[in-house]
Write a structure and sequence with these properties.
This protein has helices at 2-27, 41-58, 61-64, 67-72, 75-87, 93-119, 123-134, 136-144, 166-174, 187-192, 293-321, and strands at 152-163, 197-202, 210-215, 220-229, 233-239, 261-272, 277-288. The chain is an alpha+beta fold and 323 residues long.
């Protein structure tokens, strides 16, 4: 009897995982890239919802009677699916950190919907609902294709107050000496496994100057100074060529300069607060190209602010050290 229950449990988990892997493969096929993409509302809603429905539909009624089971049981195949895609390298750790909350929520919603019908014991209708769930991506996609695909532009603003002269601060702004790992304060980006800043080189302090922001694992941003006022302001364009970024550096769905996420420009502004203290502002503009920018922008903004705060803290420490 225990082995029978174990076999049943394995099927309850394995079938939804197989469905998820199949759908993930279909969404990533080159032949349908012009039709839809993995980074879409269709994928983020229909896949976890379908996993939730199938999981509960396959579960015994005595288990489904418990609301906690209907809510939490779909999480098991979703988490297993996440682990498998990481092992198979179809998704990265950073990507899953960002999308997992959405998957768990819609997995639970799917479980609750399936539980509602299962408890009514409409077995024939229940089979029909499962088949409709499998077709759900096509239904949602027909609506999603009507959504505008225009890229959206966002700003990430940060600042820090520094007790040092303008000259000391500006010297550390234009050219950032190599940053050791002990000086790296990017807690969130480090947790996600993003490359960390190493140094920044500027060939000419003025309009037209070329600046390279070098990060670990081969990530380099080519920057061109567009506006410049000594010890006051430096505005520069930012270009990351995704073809020059090693495939192991970042998840392809969050790679900077890729299909979905790009950084456009950055600006340093130095403000004198009083005789001893200056405020260094750093803000950047980034672009997102997804149909769920309302959610992706929250994560992208957090990432950009963490990177900027990290650099500001390095500049602050080095400037105050010489004051």
């Amino acid at each position: 009897m225990p082995s029978k229950k174990l076999t049943s449990l394995l099927w309850i988990i394995a079938i939804p995982v197989a469905y998820a892997l199949l759908l993930r493969t279909v969404f990533d096929l080159d032949i349908i890239q012009n039709f839809t993409q993995v980074m879409s509302i269709t994928f983020f809603i229909s896949l976890p919802f379908g996993v939730g429905v199938i999981t509960i539909a396959l579960s015994p009624v005595e288990k489904v009677k418990y609301r906690g089971y209907r809510i939490l049981m779909p999480w098991l195949p979703i988490l297993l699916f996440a682990v498998l895609t990481i092992l198979l390298q179809t998704e990265g750790w950073a990507c899953w950190i960002m999308i997992l909350p959405v998957f768990l929520i819609f997995g639970s919603i799917g479980g609750l919907v399936a539980g509602y019908y299962k408890l009514k014991k409409y077995r024939n209708e229940n089979k029909l609902h499962i088949s409709l769930v499998c077709l759900l991506p096509v239904v949602i996609l027909s609506f999603e294709n009507q959504l505008p695909s225009l890229p959206a532009r966002y700003e990430a603003y940060t600042y820090t107050d520094i007790t040092a002269t303008k000259e000391q601060i500006w010297n550390n702004v234009t050219r950032v000496r190599e940053i050791g790992e002990k000086d790296d304060k990017g807690s969130f980006t480090n947790f996600l496994g993003f490359p960390r800043p190493v140094k920044a080189e500027l060939d000419y302090a003025g309009v037209g100057g070329s600046r390279k922001a070098i990060f670990s694992r081969g990530l380099v941003f080519d920057e061109v100074v567009k506006d410049y006022a000594p010890e006051k302001m430096m505005h520069f364009s930012i270009k990351a060529n995704p073809f020059n970024i090693p495939s192991t550096t970042m998840d392809k769905h969050v790679v900077i300069g890729g299909d979905y996420f790009d950084v456009l420009d950055g600006t340093y502004k130095l403000e004198q607060l009083n005789k001893t203290t200056c405020r260094l502002h750093l803000f950047s503009h980034f672009e997102l190209k997804t149909t769920f920018n309302f959610y992706a922008s929250w994560w992208a903004g957090w990432i950009m602010k963490d990177i900027q705060n990290n650099i500001l803290q390095v500049i602050k420490a080095r400037s105050e050290m010489k004051s």
